[in-house]
Amino acid sequence: MRKTIDCRDYPSEVDCSLAISGEEDEVVRAAAEHAASVHSEQDTPALREGIRSMLKDEAPQHV
Which of 7, 13, 36, 56 could be a cystine partner for 43, CB 3.0 to 4.6 Å? Predict the structure, then answer.
């Protein structure tokens, strides 16, 4: 199942609206890179585990 994370669920000073979805490892990697470049977080194993714990299952899309 695809996973998703949405910055709007975690308000910050940046007022970011980015949402990322895909396979779990892809989302964790992209979200960690985004957190480092936009939110001034350190890309650490602890950050990635925190991101992993916040992932949600993506709602199925009807074709």
Answer: 36
Q: What is the DSSP letter of 35?
A: H
Q: Where are the domains of the chain?
A: 3-57
Find the angle CA(15)-CA(30)-CA(47) to the nearest 5 degrees. 75
Tokens for 5? 């994370």
User: What number is the average pLDDT over the span 24-44?
Assistant: 96
Task: Give pTM, 2 decimals.
Answer: 0.88
Q: For residue 34, how many other CB atoms are within 10 A of its CB?
A: 18
Q: Given pLDDT bands bounded at 50, 70 and 90, which one contains residue 24?
A: very high
